[in-house]
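This section describes the prediction task in plain terms. A model, or a person checking by hand, is given the sequence of a single protein chain and must write out its three-dimensional structure as a string of tokens. No templates, partner chains or ligands are provided. The sample shown here is typical of the held-out split.
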Amino acid sequence: MHRDGLLRILGRYLERHPDELVSVDHVRQFVRVHEDCFERSCREGHITGSAWIVSPDHRRVLLHHHAKLDKWLQLGGHSDGDPDPFRVALREAREESGMARFREPSGEVVPTPLDVDVHRIPERGADPAHLHLDVRYLLVAAPGQELVRTGESKDLRWIPAGEISSLTREESVLRLARKAVPRLRDGVVRPVEDAL
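The expected answer:
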């Protein structure tokens, strides 16, 4: 079953974050019930992947002002059929930042997510309101890369870690900032290409 890999990833995540049982179990149940959970055609909601990207010196975070949602958020997007949320997060990081090279700090062959979040996307045009079940990963940008803003962003910029709360009060974004600190401190950073 193409959903088994994600269910295993969520199980590993829950081992690290047993206090998040209720929210993670919601995602697991959704994945079990919806065979098409990786497709936008799953109208109730779908799996997405996103990346919390930090600068090479770990002092800044890359955020974009999302054009449709009008909020400062981490980079990420739809799975579009890909059942590997890490691959989705990496693809979205590359597409939305213009950067190509990242490192992943877990040291794991199949990285454990930094965070799992469920949030409601409001109705827009022909698309009804629905859920994004977002599997989020930590990436460290390799040095010497230029940012390239796409049409999905009103703005794209490196934000000093201590200034994130001046741009957003979104708890899910602030939670990513808090969770990244111990992962960066304790992680073994390696090039992403080795992880794929």
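For orientation: The CA atoms of residues 54 and 61 lie 4 Å apart.
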